[in-house]
Amino acid sequence: MAVAGDPAPAAPPIAAILKDAALAAIVTFALALPLVGFETIDVSGVGLGLNFRFAAVAIATATVFLGRIGLAAIALGRPIAVLVPSAGVAAAAALGPWPMRTVAWLVAIAAAVLALRAGLALRRLAPGAGAGAAIPARIVGRLRRVAPPLLLALGVAFPFLPFTDQRLLDIAILVVTYVMLGWGLNIVVGLAGLLDLGYVAFYAVGAYTFGLLALNFDVGFWGALPAAGALAAMVGLLLGFPVLRLRGDYLAIVTLGFGEIIRIVLQNWWEVTGGPNGVSNIPRPTFFGLPFKAEPDEGEATFATFLGLDFSPAHRVTFLYFIILAMALIVNAFTRRIRRLPVGRAWEALREDEIACRALGINPTNTKLSAFAIGAMFAGFAGSFFAARQGFISPESFTFIESAVILAIVVLGGMGSQLGIVLAAIVLIGLPEFLRELNQFRMLAFGAGMVAIMVWRPLGLLSHREPTIRLHATGDRA
Amino acid sequence: MLTIAGLSTGYGHIEALRGVDLEVRAGEIVTLIGANGAGKSTLLMSVCGSPRAWRGRILFEGRDITRMPTFEIVRLGIAQSPEGRRIFPRMTVLENLQMGATTAPEHFEDGLRRVFKLFPRLEERRLQRGGTLSGGEQQMLSIGRALMSRPRLLLLDEPSLGLAPMIVKQIFQVIREVNEQEGMTVFLVEQNAFHALRLAHRGYVMMNGRITLSGTGRELLANREVRAAYLEGGHGA
């Protein structure tokens, strides 16, 4: 009935499809014209000038127009007619020499999504594809079993992989830092169910503890680490006491305020903290007392000279990577262990139902305080690592957005799921670092990632909760 | 065992209990019946300290528990299956029961065996999450969880609420069993007056925050006022 090559059979309303696509294109045009079309440029000698990027607007409009038609064609059961050209466009946009990288990326992503949908539609049309719905659950189940050891192996081997360069390793350190923070906050939010929006405060306390100890008393990283954890835990208790009666939204508001208080104190108590100038020249961690230096002092052994290696800055970065990896894994092991102990179970029960907990003889005060303190302690460790890695800290590193990002990692990962937190940290921290090419659109990509996760996996990437007890006590002995 | 003397309490400015006197002796099943909003659940909850008594005293085995924190009262040997069951929905049946043994972790395995014997259904469902159980199973879990702490006094709040007659029968049978075989004292708040009074040794009738009648289960079942108020127009199952 339909002519070959015609985008739709004769019966479906081509006019309606075209109208729909044209409307979408007009909206795109209206949005793209002011947002994308004009660019401020530096005109030498004159100052700022406007540059009209007609090509970008045209490409965006055309992409939406064609994409819309493509979607309609998929809905009409013509996925092959869409799959081939959209895959071609995606490849061309990703690889071809386009004038603007950002536009090329966006076109490539749009075309790839279209191709993906066409592919999925094709599978659904294919005979014997009835089990389609069961696949995700099975994949997730297998992922949960296989992924942890694989990720661990990848994590340990990462610095030695052939494609790992300094930049990649730096990103990895950042990601693992956030994994550790996510795992730490997971104890408070995921297990105990206490919504904490000021987690970065404990991170800051840890960082400043080390920074100030190093500055004033010449304490090294390893010496300051326990102090940073202990002080952060104490601050956690300090926050915990007044908020014991609060839950949910109210707790979130108070912890948010608390996080800001810590930051503002750091900013204004300049006699001690250096105020907005922060603390600089924080010493790097040493390898059992051996520093990482290119030019050692007279008679001083460094990591390179001691082991008879040529000095390379990569040694230090690799070492930092392993420190944070080890610390993160400690948090992970700790959490897995404590979930099986009475206090960990009490945290989870408290999240579920506080009244029932009281009625079962659990002391809610101690339970909540312990969650706050332990979560804070891990943030303190991470903060002290952050200070050691950066060598410089200032209140600017500890703004609310940090708390929000860490919380986003926990929530998007699937509250309480440690593996989910790893994936969420890679997506939320790793990808934006990779996509630096998108420059000003980076935060947009961050937001889009969050929206995408909430749309497709509203309970988080991995929302499964692993039971802590499986034994069958009656059968064993009876 | 449990003595409540002149107890008044409430929420905000509203007084829900107005001078309640009540006694539960060791080894008894005592039931408290009354209409919606009479203050039955409030009385049960106030034994564990929420809401707190405004006036009056609560004694457990001669000890004044009126001002004790809830979790300490529970540790004295009182367990509760509260209104609305309040099981932990995301935790498995086994984990729920484990939480029940918080105050007596050394008896966890014994307790588990006992609870599974009383409610074989829970054993079948032991790895299922609490929230996915049926209403009757959730009620069994709530009672089972309370039994895990080996209480001397068991407080039950409307265990029959919203359950099929078959399940109600089964649950009341279990209450009788733990009372007769283990000598556990039970204080039962119920709307299902017919069943509750047949099960209990003694009963109290509550109205607008006051105890208006008391007597043995049989006496109350035969009482004209009780019949008119709570029993006429259908005996349930």
Can you describe this structure?
The complex is a heterodimer of chains A (478) and B (237). Helix content of chain A is 68%, strand content 3%. With 478 residues, chain A is mostly helical. Chain A folds into 2 domains: 14-124, no CATH class; 145-294 and 302-456, ABC transporter involved in vitamin B12 uptake, BtuC. Chain A has a two-stranded antiparallel sheet with strand order 1-2. In chain A, a hairpin with a 3-residue loop joins strand 1 and strand 2 (47-52). Chain B is an alpha/beta fold. Chain B has 2 domains: 1-77 and 153-232, 3-Layer(aba) Sandwich (Rossmann fold); 84-151, no CATH class. Helices cover 38% and strands 27% of the residues of chain B. Chain B has helices spanning 40-47, 70-75, 93-100, 108-118, 120-124, 135-147, 165-182, 193-199, 217-222, 224-231, and strands spanning 2-11, 14-24, 29-34, 55-60, 63-64, 78-81, 153-157, 185-190, 202-207, 210-216. In chain B, strand 1 (2-11) and strand 2 form a beta hairpin. In chain B, helix 3 (93-100) packs parallel to helix 6 (135-147). The two termini of chain B are 32 Å apart. The mean pLDDT of chain B is 90. The chains are: A mainly alpha (478), B alpha/beta (237). The A-B interface holds A 342, 345-346, 348-349, 352-353, 355-364, 465, 467-474, 477-478 and B 48, 50, 69-71, 74-75, 79-80, 82, 86-92, 94-95, 98-100, 102-103, 105, 108-109, 112-113, 116, 123, 126-127, 145, 149.
